[in-house]
Amino acid sequence: MDRRLTKPLAIAAVVVALLVGFLIGGIADVGKRLFGGPDPESVVNSSLESMRAQNRLVPFVARFVSVTSSRQERFGLSAERTLILPGTVRYEIDLAKIDRDDLDWNSSSRTLSVRLPNIEIAGPEVDLNAAREYGSGGILSAVTDAEQKLDDANRSLAVADLRKQAAGPTTMRLAREAARVAIERSFAMPLQAAGIGDAQVVARFADEGDNPSYLDRSATYNEAIEEARRRRAAEGR
């Protein structure tokens, strides 16, 4: 299985939110001089509307390969076929499902909590050009439609197997983490641009409850960026 973030799509969500953040930041700067500071909830609400307008976020894509075999016996004869079928699956977040009730700004801790809708799996999109079929039915295939039936059975089994792989716990965990990071950045960057540099954004899925374990290791946006720089430096990048 190959797995990768769909960077153009995931980053697009961040960039759009950032542009909105800069606009808000300019307005907030005027408000700061007149009224004493930017309003975090106004920034968050504007970011939310920007994200909802994008409709869907695809933070993660994975490619799987299914190997299936089918066998048929008739008249004392047998036929067997094997199919190797690759397929690509997208993991999506319906941004329109995030509404104001899913956001909670805690002014004391300067933390924005975001409740996310569940990941939706789209696909698989099978790659027929890369598909490979092996085996033959000999006499049985020559005198019946056994080969066609075996191929049809293999394709149905392969699609079901690709879907099963896509819903596996490891890949779902990676997809959820990618979605969490993309959403957190989409809210954090406008807050940063508006001058609210100490704000934290913590995104969680509805089925994780109010206190998921990863909250214990949350960091500010600046801390996360600095940590990424340290990792790249350590790896010699």
List keywords for this structure.
46% helix, 237 residues, elongated
Describe the structure.
With 237 residues, the chain is an alpha+beta fold. The protein has one domain. Helix content is 46%, strand content 28%. It is built from 6 helices and 8 strands, in the order βααββββββαααβα. Strands 1, 2, 3, 6 and 7 form a 5-stranded antiparallel beta sheet that branches. A 3-stranded mixed beta sheet has the order 4-5-8, covered by helices on one side. Strand 2 (56-74) and strand 3 (77-94) form a beta hairpin. The longest helix has 29 residues, at 7-35. Mean pLDDT is 77; it is low at 17-22, 30-36 and 211-222.
Quick synopsis:
The protein has helices at about 5-35, 40-55, 140-145, 145-165, 170-195, 220-235; strands at about 1-5, 55-75, 75-95, 105, 110-115, 120-125, 130-135, 200-205.
Overall spatial form:
elongated
What proportion of the residues is helical, as a percent range? 40-55%
Count all strands and give the number: 8
Mean pLDDT: 77
Secondary-structure element series: EHHEEEEEEHHHEH
What structural class do the secondary elements suggest? alpha+beta
The whole-angstrom Rg is: 25 Å
Q: Note the gap between the termini.
A: 26 Å
Number of domains: 1
Fraction of residues in β-strands: 25-35%
The DSSP helix count reads 6
Low-confidence stretches: 17-22, 30-36, 211-222
* Main sheet overview: 5 strands, antiparallel
